[in-house]
Amino acid sequence: MSQPRPSAQRLVDHVDRLGAEHPPIALDSVDFTVIDPVTLEARFGHVLDYMARVELEVDRNVLELMTMLPDPPEVDVHFYRDVWQPQEIQHGRILDELQVRLGRDNANADLDSIGTKLKVLGALGHLGAFQDVSRMLYYVTGMATERSAVLAYNLLHDGVAEMGETAVAQTIIAPIRRQEPGHYAFYQLSARLLWSELAAWQKWLVRHLRRLSFSPVGANDDEQKADFGDLMATLGIDDDSDFTAQIARVEMELLWARDKGLPVPEYVTRAFREARELSVARAAGDSSAGR
């Protein structure tokens, strides 16, 4: 058997190291002590619910991956089966337990539905060249998702810490956010490696499909987009802020390097703006209904 190229071996080593150094967060390491549960729930309850749902839906995400990538590289399977899924599921369980202790319902996570578009990608994925297009979309989506998570957890941590909720900040939010950068690094390394191997037509198709498919993490319909808009408002995220630039930085470098002078792809800014608009519109509708 031939040895992996140095860049590919670096990816394998990274996944092995993630699994060894970052096991799922042990429940007995978590302190659910809350000083002011009413205020914490009022300010951040919906943020906890959104993040818990997204983390718990990793089970469905794995089903989606198995559908759209019928013959994935071994390192991808090792990553999402042995490292990413166990870590993310535990994140979701812990966040969900916290919100339940604050008096909220459990997150309404969709664990098993798979959209028609992904099934079509999976059918086409039996053609190796097209599966590489699907893999590239998986990697750039993963980069945006994990970078969003890191930045959002940073903001949530700071907000919870400012409230004096030290146990939540130090034993829940901080350990969770500590595991997210390793996931981002996997997608980044994978994307850079694969992009260099794609033919011109494959790169064109990735760009085209990415424009059509981008949405904020966990926002799969208008209601969830409005929920994400609420999260943006609570955490102080603007659709044209540095937040969006950081999410799209590597994606911009890879997919759109030829387009100079644009820090963020227009479809990213548009998606975040739409989320805020839906949030504002929903709030206005609720206010009108209450009068």
Helical residues, percent: over 70%
Beta-sheet strand percentage?
under 5%
The radius of gyration over CA amounts to: 19 Å
Poorly predicted runs of 5 or more residues: none
Approximate shape: globular
End-to-end Cα distance, whole Å, is 72 Å
Major sheet summary line: none
What series of H and E elements makes up the topology?
A: HHHHHHHHHHH
Total discrete domains: 1
Total beta-strand segments: 0
| Mean pLDDT over all positions | 89
InterPro entries: Ferritin-like_SF (IPR009078), RNR-like (IPR012348)
Protein name: GTP-binding protein LepA
List keywords for this structure.
291 residues; mainly alpha; 11 helices; 74% helix; globular
Written description of the protein model:
With 291 residues, the chain is an all-alpha fold. The chain has eleven helices and no strands. It has helices spanning 6-21, 37-56, 58-68, 74-101, 116-124, 128-162, 166-195, 200-213, 222-235, 242-255, 266-290. It is globular.
Q: Can you summarize this structure?
A:
The protein has 291 residues and is mainly α. It has 11 helices and no strands. The radius of gyration is 19 Å and the shape is globular.
